[in-house]
Design a protein that fits this description.
It holds the Pfam family LRR_RPS2. One of its GO terms (molecular function) is ATP binding. The chain is of the alpha/beta class and 1294 residues long. It has 33 helices and 56 strands. Helix 24 links the parallel strand 22 and strand 23. Helix 3 packs antiparallel against helix 4, helix 12 runs parallel beside helix 14 and helix 17 crosses helix 19.
Length: 1294
């Protein structure tokens, strides 16, 4: 029974379970409907939570998204199942169907319950703010200058060594747009995992900046204190692996620790980098301490137009608007903010709106809406300047105008008391330079030289606008006419008047300006007289500048009333009696530069407060009375360059000059001195034996030109020039030794008794010297000799340039061993006429010249090498003989007849017969990877370089002239490396037959052998723009089959190449897409007697020269024609065509032997044609083609006797109205149209020849030759004039 029961239970249990599905069919369906309803309600409730999170800007968790997907799928499946059951229950279901559906329903119930049982810790999360906005929101336009800065910053951010980068530039220059673009790129490219950005604005707020960074990271602060929030932000930043924080537009000091921004990498591998933008460089460097700084400049003119055109679209391309649009873009000063503001406001406007906008911009209507964004930003920059002194200087610049000199700024600032706690002019100058640097750092001034100050026009106008509100001023632009003086009510309030070299018709009798502090009245044109009462109402005047006025016989009487005057300029004035100046005892600055004045009055000695006296270029000044100079005891600066002082007329010239110069020793406050003493015999001893002279330009001896001092290449504060040919004993003067020791720029000429410069002239090593120029010193043997002396480590440590001319006995610059610091800063060396030099640099010296930029060597007869080989003791010590001049940019070698190589090793190779040798200039022992300019003149080497050299890749300019032993210039291997070459000049290399030679033919080009024709030559330099070839007697080929490689050549000049027969060899030239465009713009040919054609065959449209602008050919007697027909069809930009003394029969060739249909040839820009002395020329084009010259207005036809017509086809030259018949253009002729005019010229010329022949028959050869001018005269005035001329010459019967 147990067994039966066990079997029954085993069978019954499964049967019962299956039966349950059938019995509970309806129950499972009902339960499924209930569970689906509950899931739908749960779905709806969770959806409300998700929507609330989205409204809060939060991101939804992925698990929630997954739940929604599974819930929707479960509901859809259950509903579909229930609908199917409803349809099936209409009939009767069999037991099996109920079983299957019941089982499926139960499974769905369990699945829905499982979904409903799922819960979430959180539905959403707060994420960091992304920087990946679209391009329109970034406001970035890809321009070359911006891309360079952007790439530089991205490269340095990728570098591990730099963590803190700064970018600065003036308001509106586009800093924000650039960093937005950078943020988007580095995040998109994965350079940083997270990029956050905050804005500093004009007053950096630590809390707000911290909050903006926290928003970018999705961080909410629970801390209540600033310190706690900074720590929390720091902790959050360190959770990222690589993070970039950008702080835009920071105006002042910002404590990054207070903000909560860590820099660099911590122990957990977090790398945080910071990029800060500002308008002020000082904020980045001093206040924040950035590691690398970039400046964003204003746009160039081309980039300004590119941005303007891109933002303006089709509106600025409208032909009626484009000229105005170009002017508007140019007037925006390269500021992207102003460009965008202007173009966005105008692009949908009519022409009158553009004209009004141009008027606003050119007149700087600062109140107009166009200027408002930029002006408000610049004014904010002014408001944030760190001191009142800076603000005062900025406003003074606004009133003085652009391009004012620092000298004028110093004088005005000094006299107005702008510089506080400054006691001397030297201190004031230093303060001024520092203030100018601060304004440049604040991006309110442009970078430039120290002697002038420049600002963008919009910046200067804003400064002027602010200044006019504070201290009204009046100014007129330089070199323009003052049409009328301001109203009287304005003049009464005016503080400054600047009329700098303007045209003024007359001066009023008096200017009522009671508040005037500065008056600049420099007049162009006629020398006006200043009325006597002109200054009566200017009692507060502090600075007066009169230029170009006539103050003879005496100065205006009212000048003596200016008791507050501190500075008086009388420049380029006609002066006679200036004794009145002595009455102005408050005067501190007196400038008489370039004025006509014969004598300095004794009264000048009464100016006890005078600090500066300028007599520069007072060439007519002959007398300075005794004791005048010595009475000026407060004098700090004295300028007497090009001033021919003769002293008091009572004594002898020598005594008086000696007295005037000797008075300088009494000026104990003197710190600046410019003086020229041509006669060394009157030079007083120990004149300069005082130590306060800080700045000087002193020329002693003859042969020096003061104008060269003012226009010199190097501006230094201490210049001394000595020519001691007349009196070498001056070198022993103690004062001269002091001046030499302190000089920054030293010129020495005709020294006697000096063999070694360093030891004999200054054994302390010329530690301050930057520039040394020695010429015509026949006894000097070296600059640094072998003498042992105590301070050898300080020999020329700061020397930047060394120039040696005509030192006929110098053998070397220095002897070994070279002092440790000698020449380490040398950048330029020029040597000329030093015949005894066999080499320029010793091997040990060249190792010191890491800063060398330029080498120039010329006319050294016995120089065989440039760098001597390594000493044996150095080689034993293990020093390498490899030399790398990494900064050398320019190398010039000229007239060195003995030179065989730069470096001696492997410079000479024996030839096959063992008798001749070949020399190579460059080898692999010396490298200069950044060389840009190489010039070789009359160098007798056989070869310039070998195929393995790889350090000429940056060469841009190459000149080879008079190197007569060269047989070729470039092999394949060398030419491939000159990828940056832009300018190439080749001249007077008489053995060169080919410029380019293939590598396989190199073995045949040994000295004395000619090369076979090359079949496959090298790619021509891809960046070559200018190519000049001249005086190449044997040159037969330039670039056969390589025309397709000249993708940048714009100018080609060929002169005096006697063997050249063709310019362009186009056989085998490869063209892409069926056509090759050549960028050539100018083609100039001259004295090529064998030149037959420019192209060896017609390119037939496969090669086009559409960019040709000018074509000139002279003395090409074998030239058949100028242009093939296919080339002529594409001359769309040709403007100038000149053909002289050539054998051409036609300008445009007609295809001989072919039936050519009439073509229309249009020369849309051709304005000038000159054809001179072309005896074989028949017409411009012999083919029956239609020619049109819409802009041709100058046509010269001179001495073209066989030219019967201009063109055989239809001809149109709509604006041409005359043909010039002489080179000078003083005779012309016209008969209605061009062809008719040429035919009549020809017919009358034939008539003239007939009359000449008849004259010969009657009178023989007696006076029957009539010059070409007679024919021109005939054309102009008719046959009657000719008959009269013939009668006058004895041919009356004709």
């Amino acid at each position: 029974m147990d067994a039966i029961a066990s079997v029954a239970s085993t069978v019954a249990a499964p049967l019962l379970r299956h039966l349950t599905y059938v019995l509970l069919y309806t129950t499972y369906l009902s339960e499924l409907e209930v569970q689906v309803q509950k899931l739908r309600r749960q779905h709806k409730e969770l959806k409300h939570t998700v929507e609330a999170a989205k409204r809060s800007g939060e991101e939804i968790e992925d698990t929630v998204h997954d739940w929604f997907a599974r819930a929707r799928a479960a509901v859809e499946e259950a509903q579909a199942f229930l609908r199917q059951e409803d349809r099936e229950r209409v009939g009767c279901l069999d037991v099996y169907s109920k079983y299957v559906n019941s089982q499926r329903a139960r499974s769905m119930v369990e699945a829905v319950r499982e979904i409903r049982r799922e819960t979430f810790d959180r539905v959403s999360y707060r994420c960091g703010l992304k920087c990946n906005v679209n391009s329109a929101a970034r406001e970035y336009v890809a321009l070359e200058s911006r891309n360079l800065v952007l790439k530089g910053i991205m490269d340095v951010l990728e570098c591990d060594e730099v963590d803190f980068v700064g970018l600065y530039g003036m308001a509106g220059v586009g800093k924000t747009a650039l960093v937005k673009e950078l943020a988007w790129r580095v995040e998109k490219d994965g350079l940083f995992d997270v990029v956050v950005m905050a804005w500093g604005r004009n007053s950096p707020n630590v809390g707000r900046i911290r909050a903006e960074i926290a928003d970018g990271l999705g961080l909410k602060f629970d801390e209540l204190t600033e310190v706690g929030r900074a720590s929390r932000l720091r902790q959050r930043i360190r959770q990222e692996r690589r993070i970039l924080v950008i702080l835009d537009d920071v105006w002042g000091k910002l404590d990054l620790i207070q903000v909560g921004v860590p820099l660099g990498e911590d122990q957990r591998g977090c790398k945080c980098k910071l990029l800060v933008t500002s308008r002020d460089l000082n904020v980045l460097n001093s206040s924040l301490g950035v590691e690398r700084v970039y400046r964003l400049e204003v746009l160039s003119e081309d980039e300004s137009w590119g941005l303007f055109e891109k933002r303006g679209g089709d509106a600025v391309r409208d032909p009626s608007i484009q000229p105005l649009a170009a002017e508007v873009a140019k007037s925006c000063g390269g500021l992207p903010l102003l460009i965008v503001t202007v173009v966005e406001s105008l692009k949908d406007k009519d022409l009158y709106a553009w004209k009004d906008a141009l008027e606003q911009i050119t007149n700087f209507d600062l109140e107009g809406c166009l200027y408002y964004p930029v002006c408000s930003a610049i004014e904010m920059s002014y408001d944030c300047l760190g001191s009142q002194e800076l603000k005062a200087l900025f406003l003074l610049l606004g009133s003085m105008g652009n391009g004012c000199s620092t000298r004028d700024l110093l004088v005005c600032g000094w006299c107005l008391g702008m510089h506080k706690h400054v006691d001397t002019l030297a201190d004031g100058r230093n303060r001024l330079y520092n203030l100018i640097d601060n304004l440049r750092a604040a991006s309110l001034l442009l970078d430039g030289q120290k002697d002038s100050v420049l600002a963008l026009d919009v910046v200067r106008r804003v400064a002027a606008s602010i200044s006019s509100r504070v201290k009204p001023f009046f100014t007129v632009q330089r070199n323009t006419e003052l049409k009328e003086w301001p109203r009287m009510d304005f003049l009464r309030t005016c503080h400054h008047i600047f009329l700098d070299w303007c045209y003024i018709r007359e001066l009023p009798e008096m200017l009522e300006c009671p508040n005037l502090k500065i008056l600049q009245l420099n007049i162009q044109g006629n020398c006006l007289r200043v009325p006597d009462n002109f200054f009566v109402q200017m009692k507060q005047l502090k600075v007066l500048s009169l230029g170009g006025v006539n103050c003879t016989p005496s100065l205006p009487v009212s000048l003596g009333l200016l008791t507050s005057l501190h500075a008086l300029y009388l420049c380029k004035c006609m002066l006679e009696n200036i004794a009145t100046v002595g009455e102005i005892t408050s005067l501190e600055i007196l400038n008489l530069e370039k004025s006509e004045l014969r004598e300095l009055p004794t009264e000048i000695g009464q100016l006890s407060n005078l600090r500066l006296l300028d007599l520069t270029d007072c060439s007519s000044l002959g007398v300075i009375p005794s004791n005048v100079i010595s009475s000026l005891t407060s004098l700090e600066e004295l300028y007497m360059g090009n001033c021919n002082i003769k002293g008091d007329a009572k004594g002898s010239k020598r005594q008086n000059v000696d007295s005037s110069l000797s008075e300088l020793r009494h000026l104990h406050q003197l710190t600046n001195l410019n003086v020229q003493i041509e006669d060394t015999s009157v030079f007083p001893r120990d004149l300069f034996a005082f130590g306060k002279l800080e700045r000087y330009e002193i020329l002693i001896g003859d042969g020096w030109n003061w104008s060269e001092v003012e226009s010199g290449n190097y501006k230094t504060s201490r210049l001394l020039k000595l020519n001691l040919g007349m009196d070498p004993s001056i070198l022993m003067d103690y004062g001269i030794k002091i001046l030499m020791a302190n000089a920054e720029d030293l010129h020495l000429a005709e020294l006697k008794g000096v063999q070694e410069v360093l030891y004999e002239l200054n054994d302390e090593g010329f530690s301050r010297l930057k520039h040394l120029n020695i010429l015509n010193c026949g006894e000097i043997q070296s600059i640094i000799g072998s003498t042992e002396w105590a301070y050898h480590d300080h020999a020329f440590p700061n020397l930047e340039s060394l120039i040696l001319h005509n030192l006929v006995n110098i053998e070397r610059i220095c002897s070994d061993p070279i002092p440790a610091q000698a020449f380490t800063k040398l950048q330029v060396i020029k040597v000329k006429g030093c015949d005894r030099m066999e080499y320029l640099f010793s091997h040990s010296m060249i190792k010191h010249l890491s800063e060398l930029v330029e080498i120039e060597i010329s006319e050294c007869k016995f120089m065989t090498i440039i760098i001597a080989e390594q000493r044996q003791e150095d080689a034993i010590a293990g020093q390498t003989d490899k030399i790398n001049l990494i900064n050398l940019c320019s190398l010039t070698l000229e007239c060195l007849p003995s030179l065989v190589s730069l470096f001696p090793e492997s410079s000479i190779n024996a030839t096959e017969n063992g008798k001749d040798f070949s020399s190579q200039l460059f080898n692999d022992k010396v490298e200069f990877p950044n060389l840009e300019t190489l010039k070789l003149y009359s160098i007798n080497v056989h070869k310039i370089w070998n195929d393995q050299l790889s350090y000429f890749q940056n060469l841009t300019t190459l000149t080879i002239d008079g190197c007569e032993r060269l047989t070729f210039l470039f092999s394949d291997s060398v030419a491939r490396k000159l990828v940056k070459l832009e300018h190439l000049l080749i001249s007077s290399c008489k053995f060169v037959e080919q410029i380019f030679v293939s590598d396989e033919n190199m073995g045949n080009l040994q000295f004395g052998k000619s090369a076979p024709a090359a079949t496959e030559l090298v790619p021509i330099f891809p960046n070559l723009e200018t190519f000049v070839i001249s005086d190449m007697d044997n040159l037969k080929s330039i670039w056969p089959n390589q025309l397709d490689k000249l993708q940048s050549l714009e100018s080609l000049n060929l002169w005096y190449c006697m063997a050249l027969e063709v310019v362009y060899e186009i056989d085998g030239v490869k063209t892409s897409q069926g056509r090759l465009d050549i960028p050539l713009r100018t083609l100039s040919l001259g004295h090529l007697p064998k030149l037959k054609r420019l192209w060896n065959k017609d390119p037939e449209g496969n090669i086009q020269f559409q960019n040709l602008f000018m074509v000139k050919a002279t003395k090409c007697q074998s030239l058949e024609h100028v242009f093939p027909l296919s080339v002529a069809r594409d001359l769309l930009h040709l403007q100038v065509l000149e053909i002289c003394d050539c054998g051409v029969e036609e300008i445009i060739a007609n295809n001989q032997g072919e039936i050519e249909a009439a073509l229309g040839l249009v020369f849309p820009k051709l304005i000038s044609i000159k054809i001179f002395n072309l005896p074989a020329l028949q017409c411009f084009c012999t083919g029956n083609h239609h020619l049109r010259f819409p802009l041709l207005n100058k046509l010269y036809v001179v001495a073209c006797p066989t030219m019967e017509t201009f063109s055989k086809g239809i001809l149109r030259a709509s604006i041409l109205r005359k043909i010039y018949l002489t080179h000078e253009g003083d005779q012309c002729y016209w008969e209605g149209d061009l062809n008719t005019t040429v035919r009549k010229l020809f017919n009358r010329a034939m008539g003239l020849i007939v009359k000449q022949d008849l004259g010969r028959e009657v009178y023989g050869e007696y006076r029957t030759e009539l010059v070409c001018d007679d024919m021109n005269l005939l054309m102009e005035e008719g046959d009657k004039h000719l008959e009269k001329k013939i009668q006058d010459e004895g041919f009356g019967m004709l």
